[in-house]
Design brief:
Layout (H helix, E strand, L loop, with lengths): L18 H45 L5 H14 L7 E9 L17 E9 L16 E9 L12 E4 L7
Antiparallel strand pairs: 1-2, 1-4, 2-3
Amino acid sequence: MGTARPGRGAAPGTRDTGAAALEFALVSPLLLTLLFMIFSAGWGLWEYQAVRATAREATRLAAVGIPDLAAYQRGVVCLGQRNGLPAGALTAVDITFHADALLTGLAGAAPAPGGYVEVRITVASALRGVVPTLLTDDTGHVTTGAVSRIEQLGGTDLRADASLTTTGTVCP
């Protein structure tokens, strides 16, 4: 007795009535942990992509000329918001001018056509304090940059490097 009968399920008197619930209780924490890890990795990669896109666009803006530093600052914050970054997440924008493409030791050069501009952007991660990610530093910030060749100055009012604060900027 105790063997399954074809077409009728388990034989009466067998004791496997709670097996499915027990298996679910044992496997579900692992599955939920895996699901949460996949979600947080996807969110972190999306956030990193948004920061990279903002850095590329900010570098392009700096390469064609910065006529007004305040307008450039507002433009970078609005670029970040259009790329999906939350308002107030962008914490710093660092602009460095270089005379050569290798970016070696010539930081602080005056902006000139044919030179290079490097823009580094720091963003407070939305996952900061919630889950550690591989793309953030110890403080929960994502920092990335981009480099572009300066094509024209366009009335740039910067004579050397600049570091912008982005707090309190509101986009239209």
